UniProtKB/TrEMBL annotation:
Stored SUPFAM superfamilies: Thioredoxin-like
Protein's UniProt name: Glutaredoxin-like protein
Gene Ontology biological process terms, A to Z: cell redox homeostasis
Stored InterPro entries: GlrX_actino, Glutaredoxin, Grx-like_ET, Thioredoxin-like_sf, Thioredoxin_CS
Transmembrane segments: none
Record-linked NCBIfam families: GlrX_actino
Span of domain Glutaredoxin: 3-57
GO molecular function: electron transfer activity
Length: 80
């Protein structure tokens, strides 16, 4: 399952959600302002910063503020 760490006010997050929806890619959204563990994960993969959107993939890997192309390429790589 793909997890998107986000905030309600993040424009980049809204854009990526729309793109994932258009591509038919399933994901779960976690608000880092409501979930301290999620914020800690985001900080752990972003040099201490709460940068969103951060995506966590089923294999445990993560991408920060990726393009939809990067998401699709990464999903293809980890499913191969």
């Amino acid at each position: 399952m793909l997890t998107m760490y986000s905030t309600p006010w993040c424009g980049y997050c809204h854009r990526l959600k729309s793109q994932l929806d258009r591509e038919g890619i399933g994901y779960e959204v976690v608000d880092i302002e409501q979930e301290p563990e999620a914020a800690a994960f985001v900080m752990s993969v972003n040099g201490g910063n709460q940068t969103v959107p951060t995506l966590r993939f089923a294999d445990g890997s993560a991408l920060t503020n990726p393009t939809i192309r990067q998401v699709k390429e990464h999903l293809s790589e980890i499913s191969a």
